[in-house]
Specification:
The complex is a heterotrimer of chains A (about 55), B (about 300) and C (about 525). Chain A is of the alpha+beta class and about 55 residues long. Chain A is built from three helices and two strands, in the order αβαβα. In chain B, α8 packs antiparallel against α9. The N and C termini of chain B lie far apart (about 55 Å). Classes of the chains: A alpha+beta (about 55), B alpha/beta (about 300), C alpha/beta (about 525).
């Protein structure tokens, strides 16, 4: 059986990345779901870096 | 069934094959404290936190919060050396065969100069003031005008404590500490974190200058002499561990590099990042205790 | 000088919370002094020194938490404590639902996840999709603004791994009877759908449900899947999967006209499977479809009707009429009410495929249609905010939704637009779609009604009558009740037709009837 056909036999378990309303709607349908609190990749703590540089 | 990533070695004393009942004392994002009796506790921590005495680190995602397991204050816990169970939320944590984190103190023969040691302490002071959180009592390091309620209250007691330690005056030490234990905001009141830092410097920097561990322990026990009822349960346990030279990983790492290395930045920043003001208050204690021991050197 | 305090027994707050509380409360104008902490002797002594100690506070233990504050009056104190309460309970609420901050930690929390639904900004979406696919998870990609190259890359990866990659720009899917993103609640049944258009799938699934049948799966492929560059990868893999799905007896494909070669590829795969199929390539050539042994659908409704007919073993007849009785009478009577100058139809649509379908049907019947998404380049409106002659506006198109929510969620843009349309004296009919289901506004009809009323008033001032014709794309099982929505509209004098195709044909019939009578 292909993976897609396997999916059709399973209970959906969803990782939701983005709009929270999609996650809420899945919950209303009793789907096991987890909402990712996604943020764009960080650029590092500039303040800390500059402090550490000063103290060298 | 949850897996533990590591277990603190001091739990070998606390947990035995006898099963005891405890209750959930407090729940935070990354820690859950289980009180076993008047004098002992086990803390469940997420993998986000560093290692602590009396802690069991859980093998869960770094940003998974412990409260998401449903732990609530007052829940029953069933504990022995093999397993920790919180039946109400169907959580069971296996402890057998789990890696052990050694919470015992680590005293090393140092190769750095006294000058380097003092430089290290000074670096910490600077980092606290620029990067740390000063709403607790860390701001007493800046020598400036008082700007919060606690600072005022503490400065005199801290001066007394310093005098007590340098004169090896037990009475003075206990009186001064009594004026500090339990003071300040937070689950571990700011002054307690500060005292913990002093204890860390007392042991590690005291050891650097050649003091016997027994004398250091004696002073430590007077600092923590009159403890019961003066502060929160959690803080009491923390200070008792400190009295036995048992510290959390970030504290131990920092005092180790202060006394053995020429670079302390990473370890200092790690400590400053702990808790809200706890890390900064503790680091302030390390600075204060460090400067004191550097002046006093050998205890009479 | 008002002293207020708050005690929480056996309560602990981490110091971050306490710091924030202290800082924020101190900022409140009128708060002179505040102390927060646990009830240790020293903290109480300190509170006493600051004149913030009360007899009650004196009694608390180190295991209790307190806040004591001094403010200029009672109101400020109330405000401060309300604020503290808010901060303390907010912290609690936030903590209870675990929200991992990365895909990796989500995976650790839910290792048996089988689908990742991504609606992140397009710039970042592809990266996350790749992670999901490499971790052997199926993906539904709602985000648009993902490049064609990224789409090809990801779909090839998905294909190699045997996974579904629905999207980009996939707004609708129903997998294992679960509605994903914008989708309706539809009965289970033997019809499997693969579609490159969101509202197209919504209309077909809803029609199938209205006809008493149901669907097994509705797989979205994203709007660009049938372009030459992508080559129909996902449509083909989905078709294959449905061909092997024991619960699917009839297949339906929905898309805009695909690239010719891609169409052939897709249709021949469909043929190999030997399950009967109905294909809607909006406005495309039915000949090619018949050549490959599939049944062409002439509208979304017709497609649904034919699919259901096949499940019942009945013949698949073309349907291009009405299911409403007395339709001729309605047409003639309504046509009389219009003034001489009124001759144009304005379609204000929230669903892109529904708008397309409307334009396809209409251009065959009444001629040129102008639009922001015209069928022919000549039909493009020079100003999308100003209709011209017969105009159909897809309010969900990018030009209208930059920085604004989609009209299926937020009716604002359509509310304003209906008022400006009605000021044009040559407007006779306004056509609107109302799309229900998960993801949509909780009361699409209710939101438009006050504006329909306003619009009528504006027209009435010149003695004009305005026709409002609509269809509601929904089922009774949807979160918004289908019957309730239709009722609201009917009570407001809106002509509610059973499908988009019929609504459009009615509008055309009224216009033609007037032309003939003039």
């Amino acid at each position: 059986m292909t993976k897609i056909n396997e999916l059709f036999q399973e209970k959906l378990k969803v990782i939701n990345m983005g709009l929270e309303s999609f996650n809420e709607n899945l919950k209303k349908q009793n789907v096991k779901t987890v909402q990712v609190d996604w943020k764009p990749p960080a650029r590092g703590n500039k303040k800390m870096l500059s402090l550490l540089d000063k103290l060298k | 069934m949850l897996l533990a990533k590591s277990v603190a070695s001091d739990l070998n004393d606390t947990l035995t094959s006898k099963t005891v009942e405890g209750i959930v004392h407090s729940v935070f994002d990354h820690a859950c404290n289980i009180q076993l009796d008047r004098n002992s506790l086990v803390t469940l921590i997420s993998s986000k936190l560093p290692n602590y005495p009396a802690a069991v680190k859980l093998d869960i995602a770094e940003d998974q919060k412990l409260c998401s397991f449903g732990f609530k204050v007052g829940m029953k816990a069933i504990v022995n050396k093999d397993e920790i169970k919180i039946p109400e939320v169907c959580v069971s944590i296996k402890l057998t065969g789990v890696k052990v984190w050694d919470s015992a103190p680590l005293f090393l023969k140092s190769k750095i100069s006294e000058e380097m040691l003092c430089e290290n302490i000074e670096k910490i002071r600077k980092l606290i003031l620029e990067y740390g959180k000063t709403e607790g009592i860390a701001s007493i390091l800046d020598g400036n005008e008082v700007d919060n309620n606690y600072k005022n209250f503490i400065i005199n007691s801290v001066k007394r404590l310093a005098k007590g330690i340098s004169d090896f005056d037990y009475k003075e030490i206990t009186e001064a500490s009594k004026r500090l234990i339990g003071l300040g905001p937070g689950l571990t009141p700011a002054a307690d974190d500060f005292l913990l830092g002093i204890l860390a410097s007392l042991y590690y920097i005291g050891y650097y200058f050649g003091n016997h561990l027994e004398s250091l322990k004696k002073i430590a026990s007077f600092i923590i002499y009159d403890l019961p009822g003066r502060t929160t349960f959690i803080s009491e346990i923390m200070l008792r561990n400190g009295m036995k030279a048992r510290f959390s990983e970030p504290i131990r790492d920092l005092v180790l590099v202060v006394t053995n290395s020429n670079s302390i930045n990473d370890e200092c920043v790690n400590l400053l990042n702990i808790g809200g003001t706890s890390g900064s208050d503790c680091a302030a204690g390390i600075v204060f205790g460090g400067e004191l021991m550097a002046k006093v050197k050998i205890l009479k | 000088m008002v002293l207020k305090y708050l005690i929480r027994e056996n309560a602990y707050y981490d110091s971050v919370t306490l710091m924030i509380i202290t800082r924020e409360v101190k900022k409140i104008e009128g708060v002179k002094e505040v102390i927060v902490g646990v009830g240790t002797e020293l903290n109480k002594e300190l509170a006493g020194n600051l004149n913030l100690l009360t007899p009650e506070l004196q009694k608390i233990t180190p295991n209790d938490f307190f806040i004591s504050l001094d403010s200029v009056d009672n109101n400020i104190a109330k405000k401060a404590f309300a604020f503290v309460d808010e901060l303390l309970s907010k912290k609690k609420a936030e903590s209870e639902d675990y929200q991992p901050s990365t895909f990796e930690s989500a995976l650790k929390y839910m290792p048996d996840a089988n689908l990742v639904l991504i609606s992140l900004p397009g710039k970042y979406a592809a990266r996350e999709v790749k992670k999901a696919l490499l971790n052997d998870k199926h993906v539904m990609l709602f985000s648009d603004n993902v490049s064609l190259e990224e789409e090809m890359d990801l779909k090839n990866l998905a294909k190699q791994s045997g996974l579904l990659m629905m999207g980009p720009d996939c707004g609708t899917a129903i997998i294992n009877h679960i509605s994903l993103a914008f989708a309706n609640v539809v009965r289970k049944g033997p019809i499997g759908i693969v579609g490159a258009s969101g509202t197209g799938m919504q209309e077909v699934t809803v029609m199938i449900d209205k006809l008493g049948s149901g669907i097994s799966q509705a797989i979205g492929t994203g709007g660009r899947d049938l372009k030459a560059e992508v080559g129909g990868i996902m449509m083909i893999e989905s078709i294959k999967a449905l061909q092997h799905d024991p619960l699917t007896e009839v297949m339906v494909l929905i898309s805009k006209p695909p690239d010719k070669e891609v169409a052939k590829k897709v249709l021949s795969i469909l043929k190999e499977g030997e399950k009967p199929s109905v294909v809607y390539f909006a406005g495309g050539d039915p000949g090619v479809i018949k050549e490959y042994g599939s049944v062409p659908g002439l509208s979304l409704e017709d497609t649904a009707r034919k699919a259901v007919a096949i499940t019942k073993g009945m013949p698949t007849e073309d349907f291009t009429g009405f299911t409403v009785t007395n339709i001729d009478k309605i047409i003639q009577e309504e046509a009389k009410k219009l003034k001489k100058d009124q001759r144009y139809i304005r379609g204000l649509y929230t669903g892109g495929t529904l708008c397309d379908e409307a334009m396809i049907i209409l251009s065959a019947l009444i001629g040129d249609i102008y639009s922001n998404v015209p069928l022919k380049p000549e039909g493009k409106l020079s100003n999308i905010n100003r209709s011209y002659k017969h105009s159909f506006i897809d309010l969900g198109d990018d030009e209208f939704t930059r920085g604004k929510p989609h009209p299926m969620i937020d009716p604002y843009v359509r509310q304003e637009r209906i008022l400006s349309e009605v000021k044009d004296r040559e407007v006779a009919i306004i056509l609107m779609d109302f799309v229900l289901g998960f993801g949509s506004n909780s009361d699409p009809a209710g939101e438009m009604i006050p504006y329909i009323q306003k619009a009528r008033k504006i027209a009435a001032k010149d003695g004009r009558h305005i026709y409002i014709i609509s269809s509601v794309c929904g089922t009774e099982a949807d979160p918004q009740s289908l019957i309730g929505q239709e009722k609201k509209l009917k009570e407001e004098g809106v002509i509610v037709m059973p499908s988009n195709a019929q609504a459009v044909r009615l509008a055309a019939a009224i216009v033609l009837s007037r032309r003939n009578s003039q």
